[in-house]
Amino acid sequence: MIFKSGLQILSKHTFFSLVLLLVTSVAWAQQRSKALDGIIVKVNNQIILRSDLQTAVAQEEAQAQKKLSDQDRCDILRALVQQKLLVARAEIDSVVVDQETIEGTLDQRMAYFVSQIGSEQKLEEYYNKSIKQIKDDLRKPIKEQLIAEKMQGEITQKLSVTPNDVKKFFNKIPQDSLPYFSTEVEIGQIVKLAGVSKTQKDEVRNRLLELKKRIQAGESFATLATQYSEDPGSAAKGGELGFFKKRELVPEYEAAALKLEPGQLTDVIESQFGFHLIQLIERRGEEYNTRHILLKPNSTNIDMEATAAELNKLRARIQSDSISFSKAAKDFSDDKVTKDNGGLMMSPRDRSTFIPLDQVDPSIFFIIDTMKVGSITKPLEYRTEDGKQAMRIIYLKSNTPPHQANLKDDYQKLATYALNEKRRKALSDWFEKNKNTVYIDIDPEFNNCDILQGNLF
């Protein structure tokens, strides 16, 4: 039973992330009826509408392909309350997610939807909304999810398990409840986004330097931003972004802007979004207002050969043991999801690095099936989830045949489950401690769910 609870909580974490993103067709297709909709939960100034619960239930029913029980519905509402409590406490504790991260996540999600349906036009036709309207619908739930995840990280970041903890966890599993694992593999990847050439970057820098000279000679920054900036959100406003607090913009941008006095210009600054020329407009306490001109290198002229050459050099270093695959992934991979995990992919079902063979990405299944443990592929063309062109090398770390769970072969997996169990308890304790520090009001209709009783996590 203990083992199963570990699996269940991991599975729930993945499911709740999907629910709270509201990214499936069911979520978008759900139309809120003013006559039937209404607030069913308040957590400080955070609210849950009846349609939020209906959408989440519909999504899970579509995934499970069955009708949910009343208890399942209560669990989903409990998860929604969980997020609202995390977000409410984050506001009190000044835990924030910068706007660039929110917009970057939103852009990635939109690019994925477009890649799945075929084009932006088809996406707009399907939902009878403009791309901007779709993004506006998703921005708030994505922001809330990112804040809730950051709060969970703050609560659980210092937790760890010892070998003794893992052994105790395993020994509590009844012998007749030990699961039987099918063939599982551990797969690592190092991803390099295909970039533009140095020549193209230099051209963009020089264009911005010319604009800087024109501004210093007396031309209006705002006018030039309107004419030339490739940031559609701010170009129409003369490049002005509005007031932001510290840590809400990407570090490179913020660091350069905060060195300025009002009216001063930066040198050309590079960030993940392109190249910026920045002017500080005003400081107001802990907030600051800037305008910028953003220019991007021509992304249609991607240098795939240079990207492959870079990966080949890295592969040679790994094969000669001058660097481990794990360190190479952490230091050089452009994939944010796997780089901090030593490059290892995780199962979407339970977040374990041990992936059942039948769950391996079809695009690499036959490659993995023919690899020897410890081998690394040559660079392979790859398209990221948000549609960017890239190259990657694939590493087969392990290939475990079918077997019944045991400490020797499954230590890492059991350690993950044990750590997750410890995290669940920490989150549950946090909820008990904090549920009375915010205002929570739940519609009496849901009294039978006992939302505030027992373990919320």
Automatic annotation (TrEMBL):
PROSITE patterns recorded: PPIC_PPIASE_1, PPIC_PPIASE_2
GO molecular function term, any single one: peptidyl-prolyl cis-trans isomerase activity
Keywords: Isomerase, Rotamase, Signal
Record carries keyword Metal-binding: no
InterPro entries: OMP_Chaperone_SurA, PPIase_dom_sf, PPIase_PpiC, PPIase_PpiC_CS, Trigger_fact/SurA_dom_sf
A UniProt-annotated Pfam family: Rotamase
Chain ranges of the PpiC domain: 182-282, 285-381
PANTHER family: CHAPERONE SURA
Full protein name: Peptidylprolyl isomerase
Organism: Adhaeribacter rhizoryzae
Source lineage: Bacteria, Pseudomonadati, Bacteroidota, Cytophagia, Cytophagales
